[in-house]
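Have a close read of this protein, sequence plus structure tokens, and explain what the tokens say about the fold. Thanks in advance:
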Amino acid sequence: MVKKDEKEDEQRLKNAVGALLPDIEEMSREDIDSLLEESGCDLTEIRRTLHATAAEIAANYRRNGKAAPVALVAFAEAMDDSPLLPRDPKAAEAKAAGWIRQLGRALPLPAGQAQVLEAYRKGEADLSDRDRRILDAAAAELRKRLTDDE
């Protein structure tokens, strides 16, 4: 009887949590990233903590004269954001592919902190009126795009 009540309580809890949280399986990577950003999660710190904890558990296995489970070692390596590549060639390839994907990814700008900066090859005093008009129009267009995105 007690087991049945525990299972029912567990199911009710799962249902309540499921109703509060979006279905991550159906979300795009960008939507998940923005959801995490809005929540204030520091993914780097979370990954660092997970890596350190998994590495410590694996070290405890080794200190006790046992081999660390392969899945645990793979998890620790997957959470490691250092430039070291995992021992497993497929995991190393996946990590390298992730780095390459990150290169082309646009970084979100903090809301309200974007600003237009100008730089010239010539000194500002050397700009012609035409150059100044072109630069002012480009800066105005960029400011408009930044405010439209926010």
Notes: The helical segments are 2-20, 29-39, 43-63, 70-79, 89-103, 129-149. The CA atoms of residues 129 and 135 lie 10 Å apart. The radius of gyration is 25 Å.
